Amino acid sequence: MRRFEFPVDLSHAKAVNQTLADVRRLRWSGIFVALVCAAGAVGLFLVGAGWSYIVAAVLAVAAVASAWVALWAPHKVGTIEQLYHDSPLVPAVVAAKRARGLTLLALVDIAKPETSSRHFALVTRNVEAVPGHRIAIGERVPCVAVLSDRTTRNTSGMWQMVGPMPIAWGTRDQKVIADAVARIPDVEWRVLKDKLKMVDEVDATDERRLELSSKELPPELR
Known about the structure:
By secondary structure, this protein is α+β, with helices and mostly antiparallel strands.
């Protein structure tokens, strides 16, 4: 696994990193739903009817589940420093401009560490902005790939969830970003350049990823 170490600028990351923003939204949504369900459960319990006790119990369970999600989400994802440290460095490029941002196209090896062979896929992510980069098709945006599974029962040998996270969401330092670009072999950047036209096809898939066969890759990546 190719990692890239750099000092994370926490204040910058908290301001621009959409992965952190997604976790915050999930946490606050969980808290809001938990409070609403708890209030409903109390109100129905006070009604004192047989049916209200049953509904109150259901709402109480929902409140506990929502509160658990609110507490679990930050621990499941980890800190921003952990994400940058533990996730592999991957290439991504600006592949499309949208009304409210950009679409990044990344090339990611989605095979798990215990898998003997590599398995590359094209992955898209819609972002609002990538500070420090030009808004130009083909602009190189080094990222880390945040990899995870939805369930512990996944036995496919490949990660179920892949999220490119730009290095520029963790630092303002242009030298760090340039070093990250240089760490990625030219062959991987060339693959993305050749596959730019596939961005809409990739973005239209349910998982926003499209696995590549070996014949679609240069010999160095097979």
